[in-house]
Records
---
Amino acid sequence: MNKEKYTLRIYRGVPGNQYWEEFELERSASANVISSLMAIQTNPINKEGKATTPVAWEQGCLEEVCGSCSMLVNGRPRQACTALIEDIINEGCSTTITLAPFTKFPLVRDLCVDRTKMFESLKKVRAWVSVDGTWDTTKQFGQKVGPEVQEALYVLSTCMTCGCCSESCPQVNDHSPFIGPAPVSQARLFNAHPGGEYEKPERLRALLDEDGISGCGNAQNCAKVCPKKIPLTESIALIGKETMKQAIKDALKLPDT
Ligand code: SF4
Ligand code: SF4
Ligand code: FES
């Protein structure tokens, strides 16, 4: 084992034609996965010394805010921009690091996947505050929010739609329509916002659909892998109770307010 070098073993290719390719790089204290991929892009020569195509990956903020660089690093869903090479080598006790694209999203190429379904799920649960002029927002937006609520909502608001939670969730798979934990948590965020409360019944009804809250099997992997430490299982439990109440209200034909 050459202690001055490390190997990136990357699962590359396009749908239907994926393969592993290795690259050897010099170790440095400041390298992270993104800077390593950039080094390969500058000099796309694989470990066998053969010229190859540069590896495709996505990146945006480079500070764990946009979620676009998410991938499997040594099998763990995380952001490439904050994955320091030296830390990964020490954690895994190996100078070979594997990189692979997420498996729960359609593959585009190499390490790029299409996370559109996460954004579609946010639309489904109306993960926003409507300010389209169809209702009076002055009362709701004028309300004060206490520091405890602010703190709880702030954590929920840090979700970057990275997909790590869906990637780790056994219930998100080809045989299940489950939309995953992140949209459930975003419904909690906007239901608790004084300006978003107005659309709470619609969000809850959306989560009563077959792809909604009932798909969660309570395995709790999601909260363990969330890089923002969002209490996903707490959100799922809370929304589970609220959807139940909404279903009863709807069955009894009670008004929304
Ligand atoms: S809940 Fe956490 S893991 Fe899931 S998409 Fe949001 S930030 Fe990523
Ligand atoms: S609790 Fe388990 S089944 Fe439910 S969303 Fe999280 S990982 Fe998936
Ligand atoms: S580039 Fe935005 S989270 Fe990594």
---
Amino acid sequence: MKLELDVLEAFSKEGVLSRSIDLFMPRQGQIDMALAVARAIEYAETLVVEAGTGVGKTYAYLVPALLSGDRVLMSTATKALQDQLYGRDLPRLVEALGLPVETALLKGRSSYLCLHRLAMASAQSDMSDHRTSRSLGRIAEWAKVTRSGDLAELPGLDEKSPVIPLVTSTRENCLGSQCPDFRSCHVNLARKKALAADIVVVNHHLFFADLAVRESGLAELLPSVRVAIFDEAHQLNETGVQFLGISLTTGQLLDLCRDMLATGLQAARGLVDWQQIVASCEMAARDLRMCAGKAHPGSKLRWTDTVPEGLDPAIWSDALDRICASLSGALVALNTVSEIGPEFVRLHERAAELLNRANAFFAPCQTEFVRWVEVGSQLRLTESPLTIAKAVKAKMLEAPGEAGKTWIFTSATLGDDEKLSWFTQPCGLDDAKTLRVESPFDYAQQAALYVPPDFPKPSDSRHPVAVAECAARWSGRIGGRTLLLTTSLRALRVIGETLDLLFENSDSMEVLVQGIMPKRVLVERFRQGASRGQRGCVMVASASFWEGIDIPGDALQLVIIDKLPFPPPNDPMVEARSQALEAEGKSAFNHYFLPEAAVALNQGAGRLIRRETDAGILVVCDSRLASMGYGKRLIKALPPMHRLINEEALVSKLDSLTKTCTSETLPF
Ligand code: SF4
């Protein structure tokens, strides 16, 4: 009760937040959520909160967590959100509340500069490769002054830069306590700081990676934490299943071969025939890749029987057999030289781990898991759990020593029913308390929904071109300000190309297609929009742009969605989840496809209205939303927007947006 009173006081009109934070206004939804979090902390409960856009959920969980005085672990979906939480919201509140707490940020090892690998890369740098040498030089200069070693602090370094793998470590190649740079190692220092802090901010990838392999120190940290909070929790299940299964790639085998040859020739030349050992592993990896030679790149082959679909059983088993045999040979060789240096011990561990995984793929798939093979330049064999439910129960909620802990899960979209079952069931949180806090926005006034009638069906090949033509027409009326979200990369390409052609000679419109520049730069360009004499923008994007993009104000006023975002029915994971539901006598469409589409649609629609003064239109170019019975359920899951019945009404609203786009007045 004491914590609830403190929270109420902090959020009150005369409270500490109103006094110390610019533009802070008490909001009932935020207070409701903060009190629920405070109660959950006081009574060691598990709480799931869906907090609509604009509720201010970050403060609603941070304030009670900070005031509780407990040790807290916070996890969010991405490194960018982690930086925002740690660098902006957390220090602001710590200062406002005047609390003497130690905070720490912990990312995965690939985010930190590895001093040992930087030294090796600099020594081996080929001076003829000017770009790499220049980048290494810049990193070496920065290495002298950085305290955290977090590469996100290095200005201008693209997160996909090929130099990053050269200067960061992996679990496989880190030398650990044998490393000459161990004492000043940034990865170790970040972990030590996290272990000593009161509040630690991590991300879901790191959390689940650690739950699976206990590598980053989180496993030691978790038992001492009293409160664990997961923001952007809607991503937990999909992130978690990636780490809780087994996977083996031909790339991992080839990487091992490369490192084994380099280290063997450098430190144990002549003691082992490294060329022969490596050639045998490489050949086995290439033969395994060749098994799926005719499969379309990017395809996923179901693996419900002893071999993946479409592959010759004898050739597949033989190839997998030879992987195991060549790895066993490598293990014997590495064993004979393990005393020469720690590098050989690490190589031995890597080879043993890969052999374990290869052997696992000979055994039948575990129950409630699904197996498939992904074809690309390399072959990826995966066995993944269908959900994280069992792991959440066994390794978190009911793990030894975890009693008395509070677990909070929150996001703007967690399902389309009161019990938030889309989220709670796959996450094993059926017994958790749930709370839904409505968005404070007046959607009926601020936003409108239009579903074009007489539109080509989603399965019609003319559909993407029709979407692009409409988008060109409508965005032209408001000077860009349009985000077009697609459900597939193919649609992204066709729509992007069609819009490029339609605006080819336009001086006033720029088409921004996902992939033409880094996401951060693309979004920044879009934000500038038609301001300061720039051209207006239509941004066409898929996947990660459906969520996490925050463009408030009149830079974004029209969101167009090409199709209802149902999960792809042919995906092995989707198929396996559907079959599991049907085996329980449930309809996969009602219990899986529809809730998935409802949540994804809501995420996409959520890009439109970001604050009380925003106004905009959502267009869904999929007539099923209006014509099919299930469309009602999907519309009900969206915020309650005004419905536009024909294109005339749409055009009239678009025109009213342009008249009011710089004023604070709402157009409808
Ligand atoms: S301990 Fe590992 S991560 Fe740290 S500097 Fe050495 S090799 Fe790099």
